[in-house]
Amino acid sequence: KNEVEQSPQNLTAQEGEFITINCSYSVGISALHWLQQHPGGGIVSLFMLSSGKKKHGRLIATINIQEKHSSLHITASHPRDSAVYICAVRFVNQFYFGTGTSLTVIP
Amino acid sequence: DTAVSQTPKYLVTQMGNDKSIKCEQNLGHDTMYWYKQDSKKFLKIMFSYNNKELIINETVPNRFSPKSPDKAHLNLHINSLELGDSAVYFCASSHASGNTIYFGEGSWLTVV
After folding, report:
1. Which position has the higher pLDDT, B81 or A29?
2. How far apart are CA A11 and CA A73, in angstroms?
3. Is A79 helix (H, G, I), strand (E, B) or coil?
4. If you measure CA to CA, which chain B residue comes closest to A47?
5. CB-CB: which of A31, A42, A94 is closest to B56?
6. Among A6, A36, A51, A93, which would you mutate to test the B interface (most chain B Cβ atoms within 10 Å of its Cβ)?
């Protein structure tokens, strides 16, 4: 069993739709990352959270430490948001990764 | 300036060959990692080095050997390449006690 579970695994949305990707984890963490990987591209960190909520443009990330759950929301989705989104948590001296959510936004 | 750089980005090679992927970070981090990303995009830790010392060595074939000449570099050498080694390999770095991780651009390895 993976320490980090993401859902859904795959997601197709129409341009303009509101998107939510969920992440649940089973260990006590010091931080959680939402990472983005475009097709054929590298991995970049969108957010690092240890509590509450962060917003950057059309992206919003929230975390509930008590429930060990985080969500990534994309408002007014756009085809350039098509990518794999990966949840990662920092626990002790390691990073643990979710299996990723492959998002496709159709024009 | 690229924070974590790895080379080559693409590598196509025949079975049985030996190849290396290099990684360098200029962030002053003391911990570096190698991850293998499978076809389903899952990142699996292979090795982690802290100040040039191996701290994590997951179950990988001993054909894979990491080498850290200094704490800014962690190279991955692969002997006797097999078809199943085809994957994307990511180098990353962080502070040992820090929460932030930075990834390289990835190295796409194809074994034919």
Report:
1. B81
2. 13
3. helix
4. B100
5. A94
6. A93
| Arithmetic mean of pLDDT, B56-64 | 85
pLDDT of res. B58: 77
Residues 6 or more apart in contact with residue A67 via CB below 8 angstroms: none
- Picking from A61, A70, A78, the residue whose alpha carbon sits closest to that of residue A18 is A78
The string over B58-97, giving b where at least 16 C-beta atoms fall within 10 Å of a residue's C-beta and e elsewhere, is: eebeeebebebeebbbbbbebeebeeebbbbbbbbbbeee
Q: Summarize pLDDT for A15-56 with one digit per residue, the tens.
A: 999 999 999 999 888 899 999 999 888 899 999 999 999 999
Mean pLDDT, chain A, as a whole number?
Answer: 94
